[in-house]
Structure formats: C-alpha cells, structure tokens
Write a structure and sequence with these properties.
538 residues, mainly alpha, two-stranded antiparallel ribbon, 3% strand
Length: 538
C-alpha cells in the first residue's frame, strides 16, 4: 500500500472515533427507534471501535516494515500559522504497536460492554425514596460517547507529530476517564475520580510549560524536526528545565513513585472497562512521551536526570511489590483490583528504568514492556471484573473465605486464565512479560555513555530483587483465589465459568501474550531501528 493511501487510513483512525462519539449522542434512525435504544447504542460502539481496529490492522499491514525508523503515513497541514502549529500526523516503529494496542483494547472493551452493559450509579442524595440505584442514571449513550472520545484521544496521542497537538490529545482523555470512574464506578468513585483529574491536570500544566519552552526556544513545535536536531537548538539549561517540567507531567500519568497515589484509588473505583483502558492504554501515554519527546529533543537534560529517574524507577518496583505483598497476606482485607493497580506501579518502574538507561537495549525493553503490560494487565482486570461479578466482591479475604476449592474447582477455565495472567505478569519465560523487563535490566546493566555504571548496576540488582517480590505476591494470589482450601472442595457450589462473550474478549489478549513471548522479534523488529534512529545523536 502506498504512503498516500496510508495517510487516509491514519487520518480515518484518528477521526472516526470522534465522529462515532457524536453519532452515539444523536437520536437513532427512524427505522431503529422501536428497538432497545440501549443495545443499539452499545452496538454502535462495537461497530465503530471494530472499524477502527480493522483500519489499524490495515495500517500495520501496509506499513513498510523494512524501514520502521522512517515516519510513514504522514500528513502535514499548516493549522495555525501564527503559532507555527501544524496538523502533523505520522507513525513509525515506536508508535505503531501502541496505536494497534489502543484500538484492540478499546474494541474488546466495547464488545464486553455490549454483552455486559455497565451499570451507572447515582449518589444516594440524588435518588428518590424507593428508587433503584440506576433509576435516571446516565444512559448507555453517554457511556459509548465517552468510550469513543477516550479512544480518539489515545490514538491521536500516538499519531500526532506536533507538540501542541500532542498536549491537546494528551488532555483529551482526562474528562472521559473522569466520568467513566465517577458515574460508572463503584465504592468511593467520586473522590477517586477527583483525585485522578486533579493529579493529572496539575501534571499536564507543568508539562505544557516544558513543551512551550522547547517550541519557543527551538522555533518550531514539529516533533520530527526537533528529534532530528537532538537538542542542538536548545542550551543545556533550557534542556534541564524542559526535561524537568515535561518529565514531571509525564511521570504523573505513568505513574512514577511517589506520584502514583491516585492510581490505586482510580483502579479500585473504576468499572472493569475503565480499569482495562486506564492500565492498558493511558499509562502508556506517559512513557511514550518520555521516549518520543524527552530522549531525542533534550538529550543533555535527560542524561543529567537519568540517574534520578532510574533511582525512582527501582524504588517504585520494590514499593509496588511490597504493597502487593501486604495486600495479598491473609487478614489484611486487600482488594484484588487494588493489588493489580499497585503491581502496575512496579511494572511501569521497569519501563522507566529502561528509558533511564538511555541505551537502545533499555529503551527497546521499555517499549516491549509497555505492550506486554497492556496485554497482561488488561487481561487481569477483565478477569478480576469477572470474579467480582460472580462473588460480589474483589476483597481477597472474602474471596478466599467464600471460595473453598476456589476457581480451579468451581470455575476451572476462569481459574486457569487468572493463573495464566498471574504467571505472565511475574515474567515467566516464554510469555510477553519476560522480555521487556529482562531487556530493561540488560539496558541498565550497560547504560549509555556518560551515565554512572556503578549506580545503574545497583539499580539492576534492586530491580532483579523486585522480580522475586513480584513472583511472591502473584503466586500468593493464585494460591488463595485459585486453589483455596481443598478440604472444603466438595461443599462448594459450581460457579458460572467463562462465558462466550468473555472468551471472545479475553482470548486475543492471552494469544498475543503467548505470541509476543515466543516471537519477540515481531515487536523488536519494529522498535529497534526506530529507537536507534531516535538515539542516534546521543
């Protein structure tokens, strides 16, 4: 497929979810008004996200895999001449996997929601006496529109090549996610949603200052031009300030310890599809920004802060693992969704460690770990949502107390999938989670020139210790939730096992986890040339 055709495909991928969101809010056509409006709009969400996924696959198939370092499917239109802002779109080997992952996860969430519609909740003070919790609550129209708007923001983030457009797309996802948590979440959803929006907005304001500093000082907001210059237009002090500001903003979204405190609450309160998209897509936007912006545009500033980034990364790895161990222990009343949220802090620590190494091996590992985390943690949140639906709780003590023989005996396929997700998350060789974390540690073992090797050797050792802690808490979860108490196996009723629509939503994630683990060259063949080109001036 020629580049002109790919331009239209990429533009359609970015625009179609926006049009779909608008269409979800419009009245149905006259011929469909007699049917269930809720199902019709959910079907609309599946159709639009499915079309976007198909276009993403077409884009990946037409991509020139022999030259993944070259920007392809580029569109460059002068949007605001006075501010030198362009409608500049394009993809390379770094952004293409993330774009396809975003399209896949959003489609699977829409498909899951069609068969398992989300339940919107109202505050008790808003409800009339005798009303059910869903009376008068937001309709599926709002849910589908927000889901599609969220998809548009994530896809645009990975496709735009202008700093100001990157900021707009980066911010575009915040409002939809806020309402998905606040209106369709559970528990203390409004407080959790408020913490999410406050943290991320404050980080974004700081990031905007850094982006403006780079654009004004360099005389352009074009990300391709700035990356090819490798900071030659920026003084050392400008690079330091820019990396500090941009890094802080992106670190909140990643999230990096100690800026992570909004994440466990948001995941615990979010509906299942909200947690899947938050972990599988939104967290990747922060690390993608570090690779796309900070590394190539301000290499001197990045080199100065790299040891501090590496130190915070390994603290996050150990902290997240210890928090998970505490939650997994019997009697602590740990929430399974909260545990997986804290595990994300640890896993994203490996991504940050790879980026901090500033070496091709480390950055490739970070990008691989990004994709692996999106697949595995997305699957885990789907599975935990299913467990919560069946038991009415995701509290580990309650699950272990109620299950007896637990999932292996009562819902064997569900238990098997949960165990598969756990061993994939702990980095079992042959599955996707292994390669990213291993390459990130290899990169830290031999960091880029100019970085302190003794410091990074220490970071590598601490990260390796973190993998042992990760295995400890995940195996504890498998033992308590999947195995349970064998002595009471015969007394426990059988639960509904994996349903057809659940199988359809989860199988692609499990299959890709295995494929990426057995054939990592598929992904590394895309990212490695692009990463080496990006770091070529460093």
């Amino acid at each position: 497929m020629n580049d002109t055709a790919l331009q239209y495909v990429l533009a359609a991928i970015v625009v179609l979810p926006l049009l779909g969101a608008l269409g979800a809010l419009l009245p149905p056509p006259p011929g469909l008004r007699g049917r269930d409006p809720g199902q019709a709009v959910l079907r609309h969400g599946v159709t639009v996200t499915g079309a976007v996924l198909i276009l993403s696959v077409v884009l990946a198939a037409g991509f020139d895999h022999d030259h993944p370092a070259r920007m392809q499917a580029t569109t460059d239109l002068n949007w605001i001449p006075a501010l030198k802002i362009h409608l500049h779109l394009g993809i390379d080997g770094i952004s293409l996997p993330l774009l396809v992952l975003s399209a896949l996860l959003t489609f699977l969430c829409a498909l899951y929601s069609y068969f398992h519609p989300p339940v919107a909740r109202r505050d008790p003070a808003e409800e009339a006496p005798g009303a059910t919790p869903t009376d008068g609550s937001p309709s599926p129209k709002a849910f589908v529109a927000l889901l599609l708007l969220l998809e548009a923001g994530t896809l645009a983030t990975f496709a735009v090549l202008d700093l100001m457009l990157f900021f707009l797309a980066f911010e575009m996802v915040l409002i939809p996610m806020y309402f998905l948590i606040a209106r369709w979440g559970g528990g203390d959803r409004e407080r959790s949603a408020l913490r999410f929006i406050v943290y991320t907005l404050l980080g974004s304001v700081i990031m905007l200052l850094g982006l403006l500093l780079i654009g004004v000082k360099a005389g352009t907001f074009d990300m391709v031009t700035l990356a090819s210059d490798n900071g030659s237009r920026l003084s050392h002090s400008t690079q330091l300030i820019a990396v500090l500001a941009i890094g802080l903003g992106l670190a909140v979204k990643t999230p990096m310890w100690p800026l992570h405190s909004w994440l466990p609450d948001a995941h615990t309160a979010a509906p299942t599809v909200g947690s899947v998209l938050l972990a599988g897509v939104l967290l990747k936007m922060g690390t993608y920004g570090l690779v796309r912006i900070a590394l190539p545009m301000a290499p001197d500033g990045m080199r100065t802060f790299a040891p501090y980034l590496g130190a915070l990364a390994v603290v996050g790895i150990v902290y997240g693992s210890l928090a998970c161990l505490a939650l997994a222990r019997q009697g602590n009343g740990g929430d399974l969704k909260r545990l997986i949220a804290y595990s994300s802090v640890g896993h994203m620590g490996f991504v940050l460690l790879g980026i901090a190494s500033m070496s091709p091996t480390g950055v490739n590992g970070a990008l691989f770990a990004n994709i692996a985390h999106g697949l595995i943690t997305g699957l885990l949140f789907f599975l935990v949502g299913a467990v919560k639906d069946r038991y009415g709780s995701s509290d580990l003590d309650q699950l272990a107390g109620r299950t007896g023989a637990a999932l292996y005996g009562r819902a064997p396929r569900l238990g098997g999938l949960l165990a598969f997700g756990a061993v994939a998350s702990l980095g079992l060789p042959g599955l996707a989670g292994f390669w990213g974390e291993m390459l990130a540690m290899f990169g830290a073992f031999k960091p880029a020139a100019g970085l302190s090797r003794p410091a990074f050797l220490t970071f590598t050792a601490v990260a390796a210790f973190g993998t042992l802690l990760t295995a400890g808490y995940l195996l504890t979860v498998v033992r308590r939730v999947c195995m349970g108490d064998r002595e009471t196996a015969h007394t426990q009723p059988v639960l509904a096992d994996v349903r057809g629509y659940e199988f359809a939503a989860w199988t692609p994630l499990a299959a890709l986890t295995v494929l990426a683990g057995l054939w990592p060259a598929v992904l590394l063949g895309l990212t490695d040339p692009a990463v080496r080109s990006l770091l070529g001036g460093n």
